[in-house]
Amino acid sequence: MFKKMLPWIIMILVVITLITGAAFVLWYFVIDDSPAGAGNQIEQTLEGEEAPQIPADKRMELTVPLDNVVTNLADLDYVIKLSFAFQLDNEKAKQEFELLEPSVKATAIRILRDTMPEEIQGSQGQDALVTKMMNQLNALLLEGKVLQIEITDIIVQQS
Length: 159
Known about the structure:
The chain has 159 residues and is an alpha+beta fold.
């Protein structure tokens, strides 16, 4: 009786080992969604794109402020208040951006509502937020693009 069951027991143990190994590999390489992994992705994105050097007066002409964006974060116990300064690449892009201000604010709120408080802590967290916003806002613009986003004010408070 034991000789008949031995191949089945070995096969079951091998299958369990393979499933466990595959689950570990999947978790480690694919599903790992930690903020540290996001930081590496941001560094790669930001390294690839250098913002062109623009004189200060021209930079001010092409900058659009967005003040006092207030919303809850993904953890509803936290409220965030942010102000931004968006630098665009040309005058037409600035005019279009100003017309799209409600969409810009809605995009910012949507991104913030999907963000946990610990994801925005520190410079890497803020860089991640800026990168997400820049990617989504550049998809909205037809006449140009956002070159840089500065967080000019940030308050995260537990309610």
